[in-house]
Amino acid sequence: GAGVSQTPSNKVTEKGKYVELRCDPISGHTALYWYRQSLGQGPEFLIYFQGTGAADDSGLPNDRFFAVRPEGSVSTLKIQRTERGDSAVYLCASSQTRDYTDTQYFGPGTRLTVL
Amino acid sequence: AQSVTQLDSQVPVFEEAPVELRCNYSSSVSVYLFWYVQYPNQGLQLLLKYLSGSTLVKGINGFEAEFNKSQTSFHLRKPSVHISDTAEYFCAVSPYSGGGADGLTFGKGTHLIIQP
Lengths: 115, 116
Known about the structure:
The complex is a heterodimer. In chain A, 0% of the residues lie in helices and 48% in strands. Chain A is mostly beta strands.
């Protein structure tokens, strides 16, 4: 079946602009995660949704970052007033349940470049 | 909180030779352990995971890993590598319950380079 998809695959923006990154999880997966992967680093946890609610947003770096999942499926990561330091690959993952043993399936990522 | 250390940023190996990628972790709570692989221009894919039971875990593509609680390690091994194993390998941990963020905590990755 279809895996996790993310759009756009690449996004170039200017410093100070607003961007939205979209994630379509695997159908039926209730848990959804956002990670950020900077160059030469491993993915870093940002936020986790169980259903429609953000169950853990402790990884969001500051209040310029916000994410929603209004219907418990598609999620959008929103970044306001982008800074050059926000440049990274943003990864989305989903798992069938919230169980810590469940495998997280990752999308291909959105590469964000802030000029 | 948890942390993961992958000491080797790059590991060059000749084709058909064995390889070991090292992973050590630190955590104040019990954790589950994972290895993910990222092939060029592809998303992260689960190789294997340790949840409980036998400390030797077998995964896809002939990889295996051994959990060592006393040394807080989860090293990845393959007895004979192929060119197609060239990729970035990430070790990750997740808490049993609570005790930290709900997401996985990843190491910085090890780039496995297979030389013909």
